[in-house]
Design goal:
735 residues; alpha/beta; 5 domains; 8-stranded antiparallel sheet; 6-stranded antiparallel sheet; 22 helices; elongated
Length: 735
């Protein structure tokens, strides 16, 4: 069973009880804080002998002095037959008021320790603590795998809201929860009688009656040398038993003092088990350390947050679980599709491929990658593989690569299609490793490896065109992902361009939809977004959304994109045909890997053509005037200098520090944006040496050229694009 399965099923099955213990633990953590503020603690260095003198003066019939973990002093006595307990100010011996153990903490403590089920409940609580420990260990393994190792543990978290909450909260409190599980097990071992805390035999000590009166406790030498901060409990001798002794308990052990001479009759050191237990109590409850109790309370409350977000993650995964329809038996299929998917979305692409192949007359069998094999009937094999973390396989396919490496190659072509996110340094690394292994083993290929960025339906469709040509048969891959709720946006303004190639281009600005009372935009497909996020637009006549990078953020009060006419492009044709007042259906898809957080460090923005759109959005929101430097590439400044007037204005306002342009189709235009970077190599190196963040947006070919150029420019610094990516200082948005 994988760590992921262990974590999931322990959380779902024992999670409810863990929530009970976590919430009750959070409530109990209030008690040490409350106690710390209820009564004053003893002054530093105050001898126990002095405290005894003050107690005897204020409470003559005192029978016991107890120092609470909070440091407060409580004196126990009898008034007639009625027991009394009072807070005392150790500085002057004044009685401050009655002390009462709170009924609520007592009930909650019983629920926390034994689930209100007595001894059976104590065993159950110990089992839950052990489960919490296993959950913490599995959580750490999954967290390191998801983030890509210890070095990337603090990196930006990507995924759904529930996933981000689960991971971020885990990074904050995982160590505390692990510690509370360990200390709970330590305390349970004592409660359940598995470990003995006290010595098996106490010394036989009796005071020797001399007929003399008792020596006042304030004159006892052992109490004069003992500070109140070290005291736990001091028990007075019984007045009716002349052989009874004083008994003192500290963290170091316990001793018996002769009532007549004040000498220590016997001393018993605390056992190692007792010392470990005492430390576990402090670490588990926060007693004697109320700031730590606050931390424990927050950690305990977080268990509910973990459980709720975990259930949501499980439910989302369940909804996305593969439900392949139309599967032929393995032995009869002439086309095999094997899938490696972490979140489940890759299975949707596999279903689309299967449906298209079936439409073409093929018999298709689709299965998980760990079942990889070929059959006598197979003529084509396809592997659709997502990458997890820092190049790892999805959890269910952990050992698939090793298994494939041991198989003998056959003549059946195996084609690999990778799925990933270019913002991760190890983009499609698992798919690449699969492809390299297959080729090294001698498996032929129908098509070379292709890597799909951010589950792009358009890129998948283009791969389908290449596949149809390779197969020599008609094949259309129109993947229809689940479309979230959409909002209706109305075109409020447009700025048209005619590019050097004759393709129409426009900057389109949309207004928010009309809102009813209490109707948030978030519920209508428009969450809070920033420049660089994506807007999904569903054109009429298609169920497949097209994505455009946003040139505006939520705070700007409008949604702006830059659209170029694509040959045969259904969505671009629709958008460029809009007139003022026309509407579209749209939704937001976060693009956190490309987002630009507020920073004082230099920012290097590199874009070409319509790729300048999100970069313009970054500059627009640069209210702090961080040093931003834009390198823009186009063909003709008169035709495709998109956002040109805005960029010039932002230069004057200080939102943009410098601008370098390169236009490839005009004399002395400067060539391509890569050429501008080479000309500015020294300044680029200086900015990177200062910690510059780099954002690149444009075509894939342009982004590849920029990466190669920057590798050359940064070589003297012993740096590269891959180094910057590993430090999360370099991100691309390519199309």
């Amino acid at each position: 069973m994988s760590w992921k399965a262990i974590h999931r099923w322990l959380g779902l099955t024992v999670g409810t009880l863990a929530v009970v213990l976590g919430v009750t633990g959070a409530i109990l953590a209030i008690d040490p804080v409350q106690q710390a503020w209820q009564a004053p603690a003893a002054p530093d260095g105050l001898p126990v002998a002095t405290l005894v003198e003050r107690v005897v003066r204020s409470v003559p019939d005192a029978e016991e002095i107890r120092r609470l973990p909070s440091g407060a002093i409580v004196v126990f006595s009898f008034a007639g037959d009625q027991p009394q307990a009072s807070y005392m100010d150790p500085a002057d011996g004044r009685v401050l008021g009655a002390w009462h153990a709170s009924a609520l903490p007592r009930w909650v403590k019983n629920l926390h320790r034994s689930l209100l089920l007595g001894d059976a409940g104590r065993w159950g609580a110990a089992g839950v603590a052990l489960t919490m420990g296993l959950l913490c260990v599995s959580a750490l393994v999954l967290l390191l795998r998801r983030m890509g190792g210890w070095r990337r543990l603090a990196a930006r978290v990507r995924g759904s809201l529930a996933q981000r909450i689960h991971v971020v909260a885990g990074r904050v409190v995982l160590a505390v929860l692990c510690l509370t599980s360990l200390t709970a097990l330590t305390m349970s071992a004592s409660t359940l009688g598995l470990v003995a805390l006290d010595p098996r035999i106490e010394p036989e000590v009796l005071s020797v009656a001399t007929g003399k009166p008792d020596l006042p406790g304030a004159q006892f030498a052992p109490l004069q040398s003992l500070a109140v901060q070290d005291l736990r409990k001091l028990t007075f001798p019984g007045s009716t038993d002349p052989e009874d002794t004083w008994k003192v308990a500290t963290a170091q052990g316990q001793g018996w003092i002769d009532r007549y001479s004040g000498q220590m009759l016997a001393w018993q050191d605390a056992t190692l088990a007792q010392r470990v237990y005492d430390l576990a109590v402090v670490l588990h409850t926060g007693e004697a350390a109320w700031p730590w109790a606050v931390v424990l309370g927050l950690a305990g409350a977080s268990v509910l947050l973990f459980w709720l977000s975990g259930v949501v993650i499980w439910w989302q995964a369940r909804r996305q679980a593969p439900r392949i329809t139309g599967n032929s038996p393995l032995a009869q299929a002439d086309a095999l599709i094997f899938v490696a998917s972490e979140g489940g979305s890759t299975w949707g692409f596999a279903q689309t491929l299967q449906d298209a192949l079936i439409q073409g007359g093929h018999r298709v069998h689709t299965s998980a990658l760990e079942n990889f094999q070929t059959t006598a009937a197979a003529r084509q094999v396809f592997v659709l593989a997502a990458t997890y973390g820092e190049g790892q396989a999805p959890a269910h396919a952990n050992n698939a690569l090793e298994r494939i490496a041991k198989l003998n190659a056959s003549a059946v072509p195996v084609t690999v299609l990778g799925f990933g996110d270019r913002q991760f340094p190890a983009f499609c690394a698992y798919a690449k490793a699969l492809d390299q292994t297959l080729r090294a083993q001698g498996w032929p290929e129908l098509l070379p490896l292709e890597c799909i960025h951010q589950q792009s339906g358009q890129q998948f469709a283009r791969w389908g065109v290449a596949l149809a040509q390779a197969l020599g048969e008609p094949l259309v891959l129109e993947h229809v992902p689940r479309v979230p709720p959409t909002a209706t946006l109305t075109l409020m303004a447009r700025q048209d361009y005619c590019s050097a190639t004759g393709q129409a281009t426009a900057i389109l600005r949309f207004a928010w939809p009309a809102q009813g009372p209490g109707e948030p935009l978030r519920g209508r497909g428009l969450a809070r977004f920033a420049a660089g996020d994506l807007v999904g637009i569903v054109p009429p006549g298609s169920a497949v959304p097209r994505y455009y990078s946003l040139a505006s953020g939520w705070e700007d009060g409008f949604l702006e994109i830059c659209v170029r006419q694509m040959p045969g492009g259904l969505c671009s044709t629709h958008l460029l045909g809009l007139q003022k007042g026309d509407s579209i259906a749209a939704f937001i898809r976060p693009n956190p890997g490309f987002a630009l957080s507020r920073t004082r460090r230099p920012v290097l923005l590199i874009g070409a053509g319509t790729g300048v759109a999100p970069l313009a959005g970054f500059i627009r929101r640069n209210d702090r005037h961080s040093p931003m430097h834009l390198y823009f590439g186009g063909r003709d400044p008169a035709r495709d200098f998109y956002f040109g007037p805005d960029i010039q204005r932002w230069l004057g306002e200080g939102r943009l520090a410098t601008l370098q342009t390169a236009f490839s189709r005009v004399p002395d235009g400067g060539g391509y944006v890569q050429d501008a970077l080479r000309r500015d190599a020294e300044r680029v190196r200086g900015l990177v040496a200062q910690g510059a963040i780099v954002r690149v947006c444009g075509s894939r070919a342009m982004a590849q050229g920029v990466a190669e150029t920057l590798d050359e420019v940064l070589a003297p610094l012993q740096s590269s694009v891959s180094t910057l990516k590993a430090k999360e200082r370099y991100a691309e948005d390519v199309f």
